[in-house]
């Protein structure tokens, strides 16, 4: 055993003969053992994922750096005749040198395999939606919940927020470092500004899957709402999607605008170039220009992956799908009343929303409470769910914080540009003819005829 130690483990002893290298050896060994143990394990989320795929590689590479630093420090401070000192004369005919070279070669090969795997897994994990949405769950929690309920939940966050190429990746990592600092120091914005700074253009994101030239034709659009009596009211439109897209992104069409605010909710000037002709529409309002921009998909489809519901549509959809029973008198009014109240935290909301719904019926319809208690309890659970996916007191997200600009039902939307206050030199505003975008078949009607034909 002593001979084995002297002949083959001497380099390992040399590496651990000082406290710095010893600590490095512990880190490398621990990271290696954990890597072997976690190989094949599913990726964890949140802080466990950070420990698994970020802290583990960091410990491994930090240990590798400590090993030579410790040796250099030891060599500078030890006596010239130290018994573990590697001979200065390096010759492969020397058995000790050969054994040391074999050890270094084997260790380097193992380090390359382990280090490469850890690096790959770390990069892969940091590009996953789980990392983006749960690593800083207090900040990104609301956005992640909206993403999971959205139409693009199969698309990775990095495909829209990072983009392709090394330059975009480096810029994203630098921006992520800045964000990590703000999260650590608690200096992040509440709510997160929208649109986010540095969001990629539609040409870099949307058009990787969608086409500006695709003929979308006409589509049937339906909006359902309920009155306080539980009666269903339908609005049905034929949307002229191809005409809408052609008017904004057709051949030879270019639209530029100046917004008065970072949210692009109010326009100061719109410049339309079509067929080589240019028209400018200006507002009489004065003020600084917050942003100058060429219009693309994201000006209307502004919440493609993180759509937050408006209050009434959220309740109406729950009633439509039977999650809230429309047969319970006053249930819609009660739901709206409960969801509009202020809550100090998400935890408080989850605990008191069902009780506040019960309290509403105790004050306003005690007999209905007795007759429909089970359905009211079920509605209370659904209201908790609606609140959780749309509201975050911690991030100062309330109803309407993140409006969806598609159409003009839940926000000004189209009328940000198609507005009376924006006029050209002839005093004309941008086209506001409803029939140019859609044809109404029914507007808040009970049992509309269009469904019977």
Could you please describe the fold and organization of this structure?
The chain is α+β, with helices and mostly antiparallel strands and 453 residues long. It folds into 4 domains: 2-126, no CATH class; 131-192, no CATH class; 218-306 and 404-451, no CATH class; 311-390. It is 47% helix and 12% strand. The strands form 2 sheets. A 5-stranded antiparallel beta sheet has the order 6-3-4-5-7, with helices on one face. A 3-stranded antiparallel beta sheet has the order 1-2-8. The radius of gyration is 32 Å and the shape is globular.
Which features characterize this protein?
five-stranded antiparallel beta sheet, globular, 453 residues, alpha+beta, three-stranded antiparallel beta sheet
In short:
With 453 residues, the protein is α+β, with helices and mostly antiparallel strands. It has helices at 2-7, 10-15, 19-38, 46-77, 95-126, 129-134, 137-148, 157-161, 166-185, 241-249, 311-320, 331-340, 346-364, 366-371, 373-390; strands at residues 218-226, 232-240, 253-259, 267-274, 277-283, 291-294, 422-423, 438-445.
């Amino acid at each position: 055993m002593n001979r084995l130690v002297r002949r083959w483990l001497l380099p390992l002893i040399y590496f651990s003969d000082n406290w710095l290298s010893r600590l490095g050896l512990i880190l490398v060994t621990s990271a290696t053992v954990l890597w072997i143990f976690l190989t094949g394990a599913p990726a964890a989320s949140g802080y466990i994922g950070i420990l698994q795929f970020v802290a583990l590689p960091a410990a491994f590479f930090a240990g590798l750096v400590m090993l030579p630093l410790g040796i250099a420090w030891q060599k500078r401070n030890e006596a010239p005749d130290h018994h573990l000192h590697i001979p200065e004369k390096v010759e492969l005919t020397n058995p000790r040198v050969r054994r040391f070279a074999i050890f270094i070669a084997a260790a380097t090969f193992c380090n390359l395999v382990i280090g490469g795997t850890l690096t790959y897994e770390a990069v892969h994990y940091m590009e996953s939606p789980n990392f983006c949405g749960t690593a800083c769950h207090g900040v990104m929690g609301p956005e992640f919940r909206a993403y999971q309920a959205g139409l693009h939940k199969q698309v990775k966050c990095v495909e829209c927020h990072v983009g392709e190429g090394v330059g975009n990746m480096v810029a994203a990592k630098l921006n992520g470092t800045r964000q990590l600092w703000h999260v650590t120091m608690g200096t992040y914005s509440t709510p997160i500004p929208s649109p986010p700074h540095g969001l990629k253009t539609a040409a870099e994101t949307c058009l990787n899957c969608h086409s500006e030239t695709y003929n979308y034709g006409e589509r049937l659009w339906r909006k359902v709402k309920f009155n306080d009596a539980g009666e269903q009211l339908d609005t049905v439109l034929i949307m002229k999607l191809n005409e809408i897209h052609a008017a904004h992104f057709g051949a030879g069409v270019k639209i530029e605008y100046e917004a008065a605010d970072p949210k692009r909710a109010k326009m100061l000037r719109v410049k339309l170039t079509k067929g080589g002709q240019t028209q400018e529409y200006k507002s009489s309002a004065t003020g600084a220009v917050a942003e100058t921009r060429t219009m693309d998909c994201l000006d209307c489809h502004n919440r493609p992956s993180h759509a937050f519901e408006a209050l009434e549509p959220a309740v109406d959809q729950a009633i439509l799908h039977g999650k809230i029973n429309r047969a319970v008198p006053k249930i819609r009014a009660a739901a709206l009343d409960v969801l509009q109240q202020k809550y100090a935290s998400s935890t408080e909301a989850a605990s008191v929303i069902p009780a506040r719904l019960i309290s509403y019926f105790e004050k306003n319809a005690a007999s209905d409470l007795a007759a429909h208690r089970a359905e009211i309890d079920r509605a209370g659970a659904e209201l908790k769910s609606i609140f959780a996916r749309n509201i975050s007191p911690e991030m100062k997200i309330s109803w309407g914080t993140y409006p969806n600009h598609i159409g003009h039902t839940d926000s000004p939307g189209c009328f940000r540009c198609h507005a009376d206050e924006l006029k050209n030199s002839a005093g004309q505003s941008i086209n506001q003819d409803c029939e140019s975008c859609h044809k109404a078949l029914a507007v808040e009607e009970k049992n509309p005829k269009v469904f019977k034909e």
